[in-house]
Specification:
Layout (H helix, E strand, L loop, with lengths): L1 H22 L11 H17 L4 H12 L9 H10 L6 H23 L3
Helix pairs in contact: 1-2, 1-3, 2-5
Length: about 120
């Protein structure tokens, strides 16, 4: 029971990480200093997408679910919690392009305003 609770908390943390990567720069309108946190986190998130790395939080969740006695037959957070419900694999080129475009669209204006000042 305790491992399952920790696994679910890991899912929540992982979801917050993904949302922060996608649109965390928007918080820079309210708190400009967050840009210095978002930049490295977003860069790491983009590298995970581009190079198909596995996030360490995924490994932690899988380990906790197995310790709780669950059978885990998936290997990626987005593939399991997002793409499977959309009926896609997540490895298609347009999924990667769409996610990268979403990250760029959500954050480019904030970064432009922060670094250029317009």
């Amino acid at each position: 029971m305790f491992y399952l609770l920790l696994a679910n908390l890991t899912v929540l943390l992982h979801g917050c990480f993904v949302l922060f990567v996608i649109a965390g720069g928007l918080l820079g309108y309210r708190w400009p200093g967050i840009i210095w946190w978002h930049g490295p986190v977003a860069t790491y998130g983009v590298l995970i997408l581009v190079f198909s790395w596995r996030c360490p939080l995924t490994d932690v969740e899988i380990w906790l679910r197995r310790a709780a006695g669950e059978t885990v037959e998936w290997s990626g957070f987005l593939q399991h919690y997002v793409f499977s419900y959309l009926g896609i694999d997540g490895s298609e080129w347009y999924v990667l392009a769409g996610l990268l475009a979403l990250i760029l669209l959500c954050n480019s204006r904030v970064y432009w305003r922060f670094f250029v000042g317009s």
